[in-house]
UniProtKB/TrEMBL annotation:
Entry similarity comment: Belongs to the TRAFAC class TrmE-Era-EngA-EngB-Septin-like GTPase superfamily. EngB GTPase family.
Cofactor list: Mg(2+)
Organism: Aegilops tauschii subsp. strangulata (Goatgrass)
GO biological process entries: cell division
Name under which the protein is recorded: EngB-type G domain-containing protein
Alphabetical list of Pfam families matching this protein: MMR_HSR1
Taxonomy, superkingdom: Eukaryota
Keyword hit for Chloroplast: no
Entry keywords, A to Z: Cell cycle, Cell division, GTP-binding, Magnesium, Metal-binding, Nucleotide-binding, Septation
PANTHER family to which the protein is assigned, alphabetical: ENGB-TYPE G DOMAIN-CONTAINING PROTEIN, MSS1/TRME-RELATED GTP-BINDING PROTEIN
Molecular function terms from GO: GTP binding; metal ion binding
Domain annotation EngB-type G: ranges: 123-307
Length: 307
């Protein structure tokens, strides 16, 4: 498991591996509200209403809100170097393990499993996509692999409640997990899916990170907050993927822009995590965040393979 190990590791020094951080060197956490307010001000346009334009401004995050890649760390004075390596629209710092093999060349549906024990046993690293129904999981999967209909495989009758494995570039897996929060599903069925997915999270040794999808066009939902806090409390490595970040109409979105919803969601789950989990803003309409997610997966994967 990557996350618990992250902060205790360091790399030999080289120009690009200077990103070494120890929790004790992080700036102390300031009071909760003022920092939240300061970030919101940065994210919000100051004079002109750009509500329909994509957010291009990269908000500068304090060091303790960044996700340092596995094996990386920050020494005092390196703050500028670290900030320059933050992936656009995220808090993820790019480290030495991100390589040129990030893009998807081949994507093949392998199998649907009804129990964690039935999943492929070849030990290849995998990333699991999970989220509330309608969050945009299929659209994101299709966008990552640049295929219009690959994720339809998981939407076929009988497969929506399965663990669906897609092999990427013959070397790693994207795993489509059952969506949660279906309004129409009977309570018993919902419980079964929960247990089945949780068992998978806790028992799957080659699971590098869960990618929890959250709709950034609406305010935080309790069911998503519960999911994120469960993952945090169980120390399951997690990346928050905020979807639908192209939807910027304030009125339709409960009065908040995507970056404000992103900020609020993190504030609500912070206490469940030792260090800031990685998060990234995406849109399957504009493909925002697609290459960044793939780079992030690449560095997690390459680190996982070596450790
Ligand atoms: P799933 O149930 O989680 O697999 O969600 P889908 O991928 O089927 O998407 C649900 C709905 O959200 C569909 O109407 C999509 O067109 C829409 N959608 C998905 N991703 C985005 C996005 O990034 N931006 C916008 N505006 N709509 C999206």
């Amino acid at each position: 498991r990557i996350l618990p190990r992250l902060l205790s590791l360091s790399l030999p020094s080289s120009p690009t591996s200077k990103l070494l951080i120890r929790p004790s060197r992080l700036p102390p956490r300031g009071p909760f509200l003022p920092r939240c307010a300061a970030l919101s001000q940065l994210a919000a346009p100051q004079t002109v209403d750009h509500s329909d334009e994509p957010q291009e401004v990269q908000v500068k995050l304090p060091l303790d809100r960044l996700f340092l890649p596995p094996g990386a760390s920050v020494t005092p004075g390196d703050e500028e170097v670290v900030t320059a390596r933050v992936l656009k629209g995220s808090n993820i710092v790019l480290g030495t393990y991100a390589r040129g093999d990030a893009q998807v060349v081949n994507a093949d549906f392998i199998k649907s499993s009804v129990r964690p024990d039935d999943c492929p046993r070849d030990g290849l690293p995998e990333f699991a996509l999970v989220g509330r129904s309608n969050v945009g999981k299929s659209s994101l999967l299709n966008s990552l692999v640049r295929r219009k209909r690959l994720a339809l495989t998981s939407k076929k009758p009988g497969k929506t409640q399965c663990i669906n494995h897609f092999k990427i570039n013959d070397s790693w897996y994207l795993v489509d997990l059952p969506g949660y929060g279906y309004a129409s599903a009977p309570q018993v069925a919902r419980k079964d899916w929960d247990e089945f997915t949780r068992n998978y999270f806790l028992s799957r040794d080659n699971l590098v990170s869960v990618f929890l999808l959250i709709d950034a066009s609406i305010p935080a939902k309790n069911i998503d907050l519960d999911y994120a806090s469960w993952l945090g409390q169980n120390k399951v490595p997690m990346t928050l993927v905020f979807t639908k970040c192209d939807k910027r109409k304030k009125k339709k979105n409960g009065g908040k822009r995507p970056e404000e919803n992103v900020e609020c969601f993190q504030n609500l789950i912070r206490e469940y995590f030792e260090a800031a989990p990685p998060w990234i803003m995406t849109s399957s309409v504009t493909n925002q965040g697609r290459d960044e997610i793939l780079l992030h997966m690449s560095q997690l994967r390459n680190y996982w393979r070596k450790h």
